[in-house]
Amino acid sequence: MGLTYEEFHQGQSWTTQRRTVTEADVVMFCGVSGDFNPLHSDEEHCRGTRFGTRIAHGPLGMSMAIGLMSQLNLINGTALGLLNLNWDFRGPIRLGDTIHARVTTDALRRTRAGDGIVTLRFAVVNQKDETVQEGTATLLMKAAAG
């Protein structure tokens, strides 16, 4: 089980494992999202862009970062709901880039019902130590059993 509300502390931080963004990831995300923008699906088109090659969807990078955080078993079985996402896209994630996330407890507050709200701050970092995305996820978290 993941952490309960009481087990989170302001400023606590974790670093996820790394993950390489693959062709399959981007193709599957095109299909799942329905977003076949040429920036993600047309290499020939992308040769003429500022990136010079295809890039991953912004929400794909965000989803991967949240998934990598989930693998740390911080919220599995204790998250009661996702309340908010606030995300900034700072730079491209190219196919073949290897990313990881730095996750920090940013804010905590108790709900009237006794559970808690935890805001986690994310920095998504590539293999060059460049922050390509950053943002927050606010979660309703289960309280410890009384």
UniProtKB/TrEMBL annotation:
- A Pfam family of the record is MaoC_dehydratas
Q: What is this protein called?
A: MaoC/PaaZ C-terminal domain-containing protein
Q: Which residues form the MaoC-like domain?
A: 11-112
Which top-level group of life is the source organism from? Bacteria
